[in-house]
Amino acid sequence: QVLLVESGGALVKPGGSLRLSCAASGFSFSDYSMNWIRQAPGKGLEWLSYLNGSDSTIYYADSVRGRFTISRDSAKNSLYLQLDNLRAEDTAVYHCARESHKYGESFDVWGQGTMVTVSS
Amino acid sequence: SYELTQPPSVSVSPGQTARITCSGDALPRHYAYWYQQKPGQAPVVVIYKDTERPSGIPERFSGSSSGTTVTLTISGVQAEDEADYYCHSVDRSGNLRVFGGGTKVTVL
Prior knowledge:
The complex is a heterodimer of chains A (120) and B (108). Chain A is mostly beta strands and 120 residues long. Chain A is built from no helices and eleven strands. In chain A, the strands form two sheets. In chain A, strands 2, 4, 5, 6, 9, 10 and 11 form a seven-stranded mixed sheet that branches. In chain A, strands 1-3-8-7 form a four-stranded antiparallel sheet, with no helix packed on it. Chain B starts with 8 loop residues before the first strand and ends with a strand. Classes of the chains: A mainly beta (120), B mainly beta (108). At the A-B interface, β5 and β10 of A face β3, β7 and β8 of B.
């Protein structure tokens, strides 16, 4: 069964840091490009970051570039997102998502998400 | 920064047709994808590469493209289709992924 499970979400103060993890199973993790996407409470989806399968290409949304860092450990089948200098507007559910090989570059597998709350 | 524009809401009676548009000036050069999200659930892709339907998605879901606008059409809407729908593509550079703001489909 293809599965993504996020963890690491927490309540953190403005200016604080957090590291999110995404554990992958059921597929060849190193063969796939991976993304982080978030959804603030009651709001829409916001793409945050991309990392290709060979770890040679990384992209960030303007809203998080310079504050968030994406990485992966293929030996552990895990994707990470380091969140630094957090702001109240970063409060959201954070999802990892796989880019499909079969359905174009769609996000065909999503985790259920981990909640990050930034508040003093 | 690049944006994809969707209407905030669409209302439709059961059995009728719902059409959701997504506009962006890079859409003529890059594929669009559509996702359905129900409350408390992760999104599910319902259309890929503008017009293709993944296996397991009902035939009533279809996609089309014309110029800077792509459209998701749900024919013969059912109560279970009530959900939020998001388009997704990439920006003018082809690198940054982007979502539309989402459209809430209400089945009357």
